[in-house]
Amino acid sequence: MSTIFRLLLRVVFAVVLISGVIALWEAFKTGNWFS
Q1: For a tag on the chain, would you pick the N or C end, based on fewer CB atoms within 10 A?
Q2: Could you give the CA distance from residue 22 to residue 3 in angstroms, rounded to a whole number?
Q3: CA–CA separation, 15 vs 11, rounded Å?
Q4: pTM of the model
Q5: pLDDT digit of tens for each residue in the chain (35 aa)?
Q6: CA dihedral 17, 19, 25, 27 (to 10 degrees)
Q7: Which residues contact 35 (CB under 8 A, 6 or more apart)?
């Protein structure tokens, strides 16, 4: 059970990291840092 939990935690972390990078890239492209 802990193996599934670790895998789920890793997937959630990856999704958060990727979405954060995409959000930063969108802000960098548009120049909107405070939106």
Answers
A1: N
A2: 29
A3: 6
A4: 0.61
A5: 799 999 999 999 999 999 999 999 988 888 766 65
A6: -120
A7: 27
Q: What is the pLDDT of residue 20?
A: 95
pLDDT value for 34: 60
Tell me what pLDDT residue 30 has: 82
What residue has token string 């997937």?
Answer: 11
The torsion angle over the Cα atoms of residues 28, 29, 31 and 35, rounded to 10 degrees, is -80
Single-letter code of the amino acid located at 2: S
Token duo for residue 29: 């492209």
